[in-house]
Amino acid sequence: MRYILLFTILISVWTGAVPADMDAGIEAYERGDYGVARAAWAPLASAGDPMAQYFLGHLYAKGQGIARDHGKALVLFRASASQGEPYGQFALGYVYEHGQGIESNAGEAARWYRSAAEQGILPAQNNLALMYEQGRGVARNYVQAYYWYVRGARSSGLNPTKAAANLEHLIGKMTPAEIAVAERFLDKR
């Protein structure tokens, strides 16, 4: 999850999507000064900024610059996710999948992963594909797993190599007919 936070920061800075007053928190985080990052992001998160809520939730989830508190991380991730922030949605899916601060719920994890995956978040695409492959939280569906692995493998995101390796493993489980259906499904999207 640390790599996802760093990737989010880099993309946000590169695209200019970060409010100017959040810069101090990002710079502090990159230096490893998590207390300063928390102090910069906390007022923004309290004011309802979904990216600041995600960042602050990450600090609580990892115990960086503050005592680890999965309950507070959950509240912040929920607030971020409910505003449509894809990284907040991914983080909330992860929390549900792993039962951090809440009882594990694979169905809720899949729901939040799907929201983030549809917005192009590579780790969410990979995790959702894996859930379809294993039938956790969703009905086992190799065609859906194939679709999400391919989307992840085609991405220029965090680690498309992992999605490609997972896709190769899945193909070994599929019949030629299932692969043909999956390819047709991809063509329609």
Strand percentage lies at: under 5%
**Which architecture of the largest domain would the CATH scheme give at its second level?**
Alpha Horseshoe
Low-pLDDT parts are 13-17
The major sheet is characterized as:
none
* Rg on CA atoms, Å: 17 Å
Class of the largest domain in CATH? Mainly Alpha
Amino- and carboxy-terminal Cα gap: 29 Å
Helix content bin: over 70%
Explained architecture:
The protein has 189 residues and is mostly helical. It has 2 domains: 1-119, Serine Threonine Protein Phosphatase 5, Tetratricopeptide repeat (Alpha Horseshoe), CATH 1.25.40; 122-189, no CATH class. 74% of the residues lie in helices and 0% in strands. The chain is built from 11 helices and no strands. It has helices spanning 2-15, 23-31, 34-46, 50-62, 70-82, 86-98, 106-118, 122-134, 142-154, 160-171, 176-188. Helix 2 packs antiparallel against helix 3 (34-46), helix 7 crosses helix 8 and helix 9 packs antiparallel against helix 10. The longest helix has 14 residues, at 2-15. 43% of the residues are buried. Residues 13-17 have low confidence and may be disordered.
What's the helix and strand layout?
Blueprint: H1 2-15, H2 23-31, H3 34-46, H4 50-62, H5 70-82, H6 86-98, H7 106-118, H8 122-134, H9 142-154, H10 160-171, H11 176-188
Helix pairs in contact: 2-3, 3-4, 4-5, 5-6, 6-7, 7-8, 8-9, 8-10, 9-10, 9-11
What are the defining features of this structure?
189 residues; mainly alpha; Serine Threonine Protein Phosphatase 5, Tetratricopeptide repeat; 2 domains; 11 helices; 74% helix; elongated
